[in-house]
Amino acid sequence: xxxxxxxLGFPRIGIQRELKSATEGYWKGALPREQLLGTARDLRLRHxxxxxxxxxxxxxxxxxxxxxxxxxxxxxLGCVPARFDRDTELVDLDTYFALARxxxxxxxxxxxxxxxxxxxxxxxEFERGQxxxxxxxxxxxxxxxxxxxxxxxxxxxxxxxxxALLGKAKYEPFRPAQIIEALLPVYADILKRLEPLAATVxxxxxxxxxDLSPEIASRFVPVYDRLAKAAPNVRIRLxxxxxxxxxxxxxxxxxxxxxxxxxxxxxxxxxEEALRQASKTGxxxxxxxxxxxxxxxxxxxxxxxxxxxxxxxxxxDRVAVAPxxxxxxxxxxxxxxxxxxxxxxNWMAFAxxxxxxxxxxxxxxxxxxxxxxxxxxxxxxxxxxxRRSPRTHDAKVRSRAAAVTSTALERHAPFSQRQASQATVxxxxxxxxxxxxxxxxxxxxxxxxxxxxxxxxDTAAYTSTMRREIDAVVRFQxxxxxxxxxxxxxxxxxxxxxxxxxxxGFAFTRNGWVQSYGSRCVKPPIxxxxxxxxxxxxxxxxxxxxxxxxxxxxxxxxGPVTILQWSFVRDDQPRSETCRQIALAIRDEVLDLERAGIxxxxxxxxxIREGLPLRRSEWRPYLRWAVDCFRLASSGVADSTQIHTHMxxxxxxxxxxxxxxxxxDVISIETSRSxxxxxxxxxxxxxxxxxGPGVYDIHSPRVPTQAEMMSLLSKAARVIxxxxxxxxxxxxxxxxxxxxxxxxxxxxxxxxRAARQEHSREPS
Length: 764
Ligand code: GLN
Ligand code: ZN
What we know:
Blueprint: E1 4-5, H1 18-28, H2 33-54, E2 59-61, H3 69-76, H4 93-101, E3 111-113, E4 120-122, E5 125-126, H5 138-148, E6 153-158, H6 160-166, E7 168-169, H7 176-194, E8 200-204, H8 214-217, H9 220-230, E9 235-239, H10 249-253, E10 259-263, H11 271-281, E11 284-290, H12 300-314, E12 319-323, H13 342-345, H14 351-367, H15 373-388, H16 395-402, H17 415-426, H18 443-454, H19 459-480, E13 484-485, H20 497-500, E14 504-507, E15 514-517, E16 520-522, E17 526-532, H21 539-547, E18 552-558, H22 560-565, E19 568-569, H23 575-595, E20 600-604, H24 619-634, E21 642-647, H25 656-661, E22 666-669, H26 680-684, E23 690-693, H27 706-719, H28 738-761
Parallel strand pairs: 1-12, 2-6, 5-7, 6-8, 8-9, 9-10, 10-11, 11-12, 13-18, 17-19, 18-20, 20-21, 21-22, 22-23
Antiparallel strand pairs: 3-4, 14-17, 15-16
Helix pairs in contact: 1-2, 6-7, 7-9, 12-14, 18-19, 23-24, 27-28
């Protein structure tokens, strides 16, 4: 058999985001159920046909989802929390959406990020006495649908071990090994039912790219023995991605599976060992050569050489070629980006183009290099052009980045001295109050931004609209008595896009949507070249806000790690290098703000934690450069200038030392949702600088009372010295409405005043 081309998953949202419109229409009651299901079916058929026509031999099914593939798996396994209606044999459509989005009777399942991606999945909940059983027919229906369309489709399942590790249990102690045991009979039933429907089943176990406890690792062999026995005629393809298998390599190849897929975009170095294992164990190897996490065209000559080498070692019948992971994480089609700079568009491949690359590689290895000569030539040429292009290489940026020394990473004086000089400048009360930056984004604001972008609102009119907004936000903050004001960020559509659009080295798509969660999609900026800042990006707005008030206004920037993390970035140099260039651009902005009279500057870094590598052993080097980039961006200012940062997630206990090393004068963090749980870390680690644990959960429309916020503050004051505390919401307010915000912030200021009173009575 010749080498086969395989796909692991395709973006399901649709090139026009058809699935988004359909699900949102259904939720609003504007679209009947049949039409939603019809759109879903049409999308599947269209995407299958597209993959087949591109030359893919084995097409995935059940990679489609109306909301989330982990939620689908939970429903398939009957792993549904008891607070939801479980009377029916199968989970019905409305219960499915209620699990994802909540209902008046039950709150939604939690969401968190899928490994190191920006995709959010719903966290499975394990409960005692859960009736695990097949409770969804989706995977069987999709297999049957693919068959009816005349396709050889391989259903995709999330493997039992990864599924158990992704979930959480409400009871103690949570033992994933027990969960795996409980799930196993259902998985066996599923495979049995798939046997007549599919020759191959793809089982994803991305947890093999993470640190596994010996107990969990020991479950793999018996689990896969059991699955293989349940359906002896099914070929199991074990899919791994996002990392090197490293110490789990031997484990993966010793399972009762027919083939193993490895990610060679993220971890090319694992090929040699994988080939050794494959020849030893007689398994087939699926080479994930085309990057499913980034948008650059593949180096086809290099990939083909790798593929040829694998075929020499194992024989064509035991080698297949594939993307490095599901294509869920890239946009659909670069060819629709007709307004984009043609040269840069030519450097890129989205899902559809990636499938063509995979098919070219297959053809090249099966029919010889000659058969794909022109594709190889075109690929070589583009790779060479991109490498040499003045658009990717700016000598000034490079020499500046190379000349960065450790002094550029240090504030002049240590925090204790800075704190003293800042105290004399700002004269803030104890428990100073502030917000995280954005205020509600009204329809009027959005319309003005859109009109300005479209050219129908001239710059003068746009500026005055934004200034009116700043006036209103500043007056409001003065009226309710906040101490450190912000300008409100009305001019920003998105905290990364806003900066990317003003920096050299970034390009933007019009249709490059990637699913973030449910019906929500993002359009990540594309960082293709050396980054520099032609001119100030935020100064005019902050300066205007400062000019209309006697209170201090905080300037607001997005940090280098977050800009890096939320963009598609170049793959021709280390991420740390790219991040350093962004940091220098932000440093310039910080200094311009300071020169313009802005003496408190916040640099948001909500994405530092999600950039953590999947294995702990790789954390240190990452945290080193991430922290250094923040310091490079922030350290140029005078001691009396106060640097803030902001992070919004509640698990940061395990990186708290690195957070402290960022040496921001003040940090605000999200804590109110977890009722200050995250402050546990502060009981043992004495965070040296000032900190504002959020007291207002901005993800909820509910307005917290003064008493609630006071009780959160006193919780915080038990582990953090009161003189280090700030009072602020969990995050920005842009998604909230004005009435809630007015009430909540008024209560927050009252809570801070009460805290001041209380603590002034205590001896310090
Ligand atoms: N300054 C940003 C805002 O207030 C921060 C957003 C974020 O942390 N995600 O919206
Ligand atoms: Zn935030």
